[in-house]
Every structure is written in structure tokens, then in C-alpha cells.
């Protein structure tokens, strides 16, 4: 096309490593030494985790929709929502088909875990990755819209499918 671009792979890799991998490794090392204390004290990590996730979602929504450069009309947003729900449902259906085929060794409980875990994508990892990879890009807000929709969509679809999947699992276990 007659144009070229350079991507700072070293910088992106090191930022992602420091943002994602290092905290994970440190957490696993620290957990090993304070596991007994954590089991005795039972700090409210679930509530803290939920609050941090909510804060990440809130700040990302604010950054996205407060940006005056975002040019997203309602029709486009509806199309994106429809595409994301369709993709999510397709992924869940395909994982269900693959995990329940005749020569599969998965139990019904395994299948349920596969359906929900394999299609799960989180804002807590996606947003930092977007901010690192697309740092300085003026349309970063627009790029984050699909992820902002995907995360609530997976929660909504998962909660709607729980009764159906639960009854399927119970009927298969009998």
C-alpha cells in the first residue's frame, strides 16, 4: 500500500509483562507464605475484588463516553450489541457441542465449566491491554466499546442460561 508503520514490541511486551504477569507471580508467591493467615482471618477479598472490578468498569465507561472524539451513533451501538450477543451465544453453543460430542470424556459438570469459562473475557485484563497496546491512540475509547459490551453480555447471558444448563446437567447426571 506504500505505507509502513513500526510497532514497539519490546515496550508493549514489557508493559504487559509488568501489568499482568508480575502481579500474578507476586500474588502466587505471597499467597504461599500467608495462606494459613488468610484462612484464619478470611479477609473480604470477594468484596474487594468486586469493588475493584466495578471501579475499572466505571472509569472505563467514563473515559469512553466522556470523550468528545467518540463518534458512535445509536444505530452502530445497537449493531455492535447485536454482533457481540451473537458471537457470545455462538461461542457458548460451539463449546457445548464440542464438549458433549459422542467421543467426549467430559462429565456434565465439566461441560458446564467449559461453556462458562472458555467464553469468559474480563475487563480487568482487556482494558489494561488496550491501554498499553493503543497508548496515545485518539480513538482508544471507540476501541474499548466492544469489550465494555462483551463483559456485561456474558454476565447477562450466563445468568439467563443458568436454569436451562442446570436442568440439562441434572438430567444428564441421573
UniProtKB/TrEMBL annotation:
Pfam families: SBF_like
Membrane-spanning segments: 12-33, 45-66, 78-99, 111-137, 143-165
Highest taxon in the source lineage: Eukaryota
UniProt keywords, alphabetically: Membrane, Transmembrane, Transmembrane helix
Family: Belongs to the bile acid:sodium symporter (BASS) (TC 2.A.28) family.
PANTHER family in the cross-refs: SODIUM_BILE ACID COTRANSPORTER 7, SOLUTE CARRIER FAMILY 10 MEMBER 7
Protein name: NTCP7 protein
Organism (species): Ardeotis kori
Organism lineage: Eukaryota, Metazoa, Chordata, Craniata, Vertebrata
